[in-house]
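re: ur msg from earlier - yeah i can do the 4'-deoxy-4'-aminopyridoxal-5'-phosphate complex, just paste it... oh wait u already did. ok heres what im feeding in:
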Amino acid sequence: MEVSQRAKGILPSATLAITNKAKVLKSQGLDIIGFGAGEPDFDTPDNIKEAACTALKEGFTKYTATEGIIALRKAVADKLKSRNGLDYTIDEILISSGAKHSLFNAFMCLLNPGDEVLLPLPYWVSYEEQIRLCGAKVVAVNPETNLKITGDTIRRQKTSKTKLLVLNSPSNPTGVVYSKKELKDIGEAVLETGLGIISDEIYEDFTYDGIKAESIVGVIPKLKEHTIIINGVSKTYSMTGWRIGYAAGPQNIIKAMGNLQAHSTSNPTSFAQKAAVEALTGPQESVSLMCQAFCKRRDYIVKALNSISGIRCPNPSGAFYVFPDVSDLYGKTTPKGTLVNSSQSFASALLEEELVAVVPGEAFGTDQYVRLSYACDMATIKKGMERIEHFVKNLS
Ligand code: PMP
Ligand code: GLU
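and the outut:
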């Protein structure tokens, strides 16, 4: 048997690959510092786990409605209203097996072969592969200033084939958060050019310095007809393994996405849906505690990285990633004789020689950078920073 042309084109997920590699090395007894994983290190809060246990005990173990249980779709609608000021009915909401699945459903139901999608650089790894799987073309768009695009970026890049813009604020990997004004500028260009938007808002609850992440649909309500909002419980409630995400958008698109889901995964896991209802409707203290912890870690890691000569690290306003520019170090050699001349060689040498895992920026379309997730405890961060400093000092 041979794999299909379509499957041959799919690249492995660099973020998951580095996370898995670090886990394997750790299980072999190596003292690995993992800055790869894009998942909160905190445990899922007890009230959420208890809701899943109760669902299991009560026998909530069968197929549910493909599009998700009504209680969860309602909880999502209520959250969109209270958190984002948006009005969605449950027919405009689809629950899927993680936000990654929601994104895949959306691209599959919106893109025809040959369509173009504007993807601001640097972008999260799975967008590109999912878009290519639909036979559509990724148009990587350079940011203007501060790693952000503007309305004019869209006006310049739009062709007759451009169908969608992917917006991810707060961003993975840069942590940048678009302000209301910036979203308005982008939204106006979208309305002018007739594009659709995939607005991935999965990091909305992790922002710092008093900044609040806004949904572009809240800024320009007319955009509701042009936007699929993607979100989920993975990050906000530290539920990455539970696999619950959701999409909110125009009813005809959501219905098509539900039909696709009906023939691929059917419903998302029954008892995980009950847990997600508790996550969205139960106590929210755990979210602010996590956010405060991330903020302290961000402050530490940004300062520590910037104190290393040859590394420049912007201060991110959201998510739990830093994206330092390490390209000043390219051309140097490690004590073991490895030439560091790309983000890939930087990350490989750092893992091999200092046992620190980071994700090469190349995976996000920008080779000058590497990504570090600070979703790990402070002691780990401190140790990791010492090792990176040691690594850089010993380059010649
Ligand atoms: N979007 C972004 C930007 C992400 O970083 C992730 C992390 N995996 C996802 C979507 C998917 O999240 P989930 O775990 O819910 O599939
Ligand atoms: N989104 C996270 C990351 O970027 C988790 C891994 C993945 O799903 O890609 O690291």
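cool cool. The pocket of 4'-deoxy-4'-aminopyridoxal-5'-phosphate (ligand 1) is lined by residues 38, 98-100, 124, 168, 172, 200, 202, 232, 234, 240, 245 (CB under 6 Å). ping me if u need the other ligands too
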